[in-house]
Every structure is written in structure tokens, then in C-alpha cells.
Amino acid sequence: MTMKFVGIGGMGLMLSPSAKHLKPGGPARFLRIHDRGTKDDRRDMCRQAWKDHGADIVHDYENLVGDGDYDGVVICAGKNGDDCAIFRALLPLMQRNKKGRPFILHLSTVSAGFAQAAYDVLSAEDIDYANYPLTGGPLGAENANMLILASGSESIYSRLVSTLQAIGNPKYFGSSVTAGAEVKLMGQLMVFDGLMGICSAAALKSECFQEELSGSEQAEFFDFLNGGAGGTRQWDVALSKGVRDNTWDQGFMTHHAVVDAIYAAKLCRERGLPALAVVPMVATALAFAYLLTKYEGAPLATHAIVREMIQKNASELDDFTTRHISYADLDASIQNSIAVLPQRVKDSVMLDINKDNFT
After folding, report:
1. Where do the domains of the chain lie, and which CATH numbers do they carry?
2. Confidence at residue 285, expressed as pLDDT on a 0 to 100 scale
């Protein structure tokens, strides 16, 4: 039997490819997709793909929910602060026209605390909740091989697994509702530490050999060196765009990455890891915050940090980070990394979250 979904975030890079991956007569189909109305060529293509899929495009949550004729709401949107506002608006509408016991399938990367609070609130309203973060980037979503990090109710996962297999590569991490979020943040530790390592190497190469950061010789050097024991995927998926093509505004965008780094630092702190694990994530968050501040919101991907790591720019970056970070006070360092963010990004972090935030 084909499951019926409605979706929020369907114009985004991670959910929109599902329009083509979920075939007619398959395990699931989307009845309606919410559209905030942003106009550009990419989103116009997404709208057409959803129409071809058979979904109606709607512009408010009331029409999205309709009379409750769906099995679940799929949300793939933002961070804690962004998605909490969605949940607050959505929950009364779901309660009003609820049929049976619907679920929310939450594909966003949020903190473990968000996942737990959302589960507690929704369970009290007889609505199931599962947070299955995605990893693998837009290319993984487009090719249906992104990783889907599932946890929580095993029965919900069993209902969804054939749908998940159509859009990516799911793996179930047990009954804890927060496990998917925790695994995603473990991955972000790997991403950000690898990014800072390869960026440090590129900055050092530039200084030692007195070369520009970008250029064919630089690219050939790291294509070679990355094949050794110190290789990292962050060369292939991130820094190579800047070094090879002088492209700094495509990839993992800084305003998203900074929030994930903060969530990862907070999770390490909550689980009792040493400062050696927490401080690098805070330093990474502060480095991204520095980019957002220095370039006043210009679109920059994470690998753009390498341009601030060369000698002529390093002191300014150091001045910014050292003012806000301390091995002696990890909690203050995490809070400082939030305080220095532009307001629009700061609002999305919403680190200390509880059930009251959903009502």
C-alpha cells in the first residue's frame, strides 16, 4: 500500500530529488508540497518535478494539512530555531483534523535536545515523531545514495524503510529518539576536523612555496598528497572547488555549518568528552562566524576559511577566535560562539530547547 505524505522543505536541495525517486505505485507519494514562493530557476525546476510527481503546490500550512488525508508530514527545512517555528504552526492544524495516528518524519539536522523535546511534545498529542538526519549533500540526494540516519520507534522505521531505500541509503541506530541526531553530529566532527586539516595544509603549502591558494599546480599537488595516509574527503568535496576552480560560494554553506559545529560541541560537552574534543568544534564555529561577520552575509562555503588562514590574514582570525574561546570555561566558549553570530543565524541555533518552545 502506498503511503501518503505532505512535505515542508520540498524546494530544498535534499528533499526535492524525492519527486523523481518516488515512482508511481511505489512505497510512497507526496500529495502536497509547501512552497514559500522564492523564485529562481532551480526552484522552478523543483516545482515542475513535484507537479510531475502528482503533488499539489500549496503556500500555507493549513492547505498542506488539509482534512488530514495523509499518513505523515515530512519536514526537511532548517535548524532548531527554524523548525521549532514550523512545529508550533503545524501542530494545532494536525490536531484539528487528525485521522488515526499520523507521524512527522523530520529529516533536518537539529540538536539531540530538539529531537527529544519534539518527541515528548508530539507523543502527548498522539502523533509519532522520528528524526532521520541526512548526510551526503545535494549530490547524494540527487543520486539517491545519501545516508539516512534513522532511530526511534522500530515500527515507524519498518513502515518507512522501503520509502527511505527509494531516496537514499538508510541505517537504523536503535530505539533512542536522539540517536540519529547524535550520529549526524559525529559525522560533522569528522567533516570539520578534516576540513580544518586540509585547509591548514593548503595554507601552509601557499606560504612554504610562496604560491597563490588557487591554481592548477596547487590542485595537482593535493590530488597527489591526498592519496597518502593523511587523505581526507574534504579535499574532494570541499577545498578542491576553491583551489582548482577558485570557487568559494558552492558547497557546505557557512551559515548552516556553523550551527552544526555548535551542536556538535554541545553534544561532546554533554557526554563528558574532554576539552580536546570540544574546543576544536568551538574554534571551527568561531571561524565560520568570523567569515559571516567579515563578509556580511555574502554566500560562502566552509572551505573559504582557508583564505583567512594564510599569513597576511591569520592574525585577524586569531584575534577574533581567541577573544571568545577558553579551555578553562567550555560552556562559556560555546555560548560565545553563538553570541557572535549574525542575528538571523543566531536565531536558528536555539541551543537550549525544551517542550515549552513547541507551544
Report:
1. 3-177 (3.40.50.720), 187-353 (1.10.1040)
2. 98
